[in-house]
């Protein structure tokens, strides 16, 4: 693996100028904080936050997690809900929130070599091929079921390119009041500064599940995917959400309706899931459990079990806020700064593999947009929430924790974990 060359500020600005055709959205700087916490003050505190702790799982290892009621938005319990960590492919929920309504499901697109150019080595792929015509529905199945970065890239190019899509995703995050999130690439690939939180991932899932197509895609267990230009040959793709599909030794969770899993060697396993029982739907986000490919699903299932058992007696320690565009009250006085408690995970020495830190403000958003497009063109290794992806090594990790918590990155052995 070769580290990317260091770019000067002038070079980054030059890259950014022609690439971004929509207004840049201010990124959340790591050091700043307002006095207002999105969702409530308790969500900024360390330690487990719950009105009723009885029955909570005792052996949770995730570095951040959250349980919320989907309908009311009440946060029932959390641990470091606003801690900013690498999201891996759970970021694809925001990608879908941003682009899903832009194209009709039946719209057809013939993929070109240019559409697939620059997909980073090690990416999770569904198997999109140049010369084959796909429906938009098939591309979204590739995104949701196989976490295919090839399908993401094709949809992003249909939307005007990666830089435009990243800018629109950042704008969508701001509308959802997901101020812990900083987008660098549309697919969740490991890039310096690409961060989100358990709280924001729950916002993305809750917003997405209001969309019938989003709900259908994330709950699809399997689909036939085109294998050649004739359209007659297909191959089967299965959903890598193990609580839905019941693969790799995980028991399917009763009432499971989605949503999205992810894996990179930097992020470890990440997952946001939703399930319905007795007319009640709960959301759970789990980030970076200590070890084990199934730990993220086991801890999610345990938190869902607790939430359903506790029922209305659990009380609320916070709330998932509504989108500004849907009449939600603006909680933070500034969308340019994260709220109190949104501690960022930063790279050792204050910079990423190219010497970057988390860049703040509108300038930082533009610079990271340009850098993301630049890295994508170079095909920098390090992504994936893979079924066949090769884990990245430590020099391509997005972020190390700023605290003394143990790192969760998988060793760079060259062997791939099972699909996550």
- Describe the largest sheet: 7 strands, antiparallel
Mean of residue pLDDT?
77
Categorize the overall geometry.
globular
Rg calculated over all Cα atoms: 20 Å
Percentage of residues in DSSP E strands: 5-15%
Number of helices: 11
Distance between the termini: 23 Å
Low-confidence stretches: 1-34, 333-337, 346-420
Number of strand segments: 11
Class inferred from helices and paired strands: alpha+beta
Q: What are the secondary-structure elements, in order, as H or E?
A: HEEEHEHEHHHHHEEHEEEHEH
Helix share bin: 25-40%
Please, could you describe this protein's structure?
The chain starts with 8 loop residues before the first helix and ends in a 42-residue tail after the last helix. With 420 residues, the chain is of the alpha+beta class. Residues 1-34, 333-337 and 346-420 have low confidence and may be disordered. Strand 8 (256-264) and strand 9 form a beta hairpin. It contains 11 helices and 11 strands. Strands 1, 2, 3, 8, 9, 10 and 11 form a 7-stranded antiparallel β-sheet that branches. Strands 4-5 form a two-stranded antiparallel ribbon. Strands 6-7 form a two-stranded antiparallel ribbon. Helix 1 packs across helix 11 (361-378), helix 4 runs antiparallel to helix 5 and helix 6 (162-175) packs antiparallel against helix 11 (361-378). The relative contact order is 0.24.
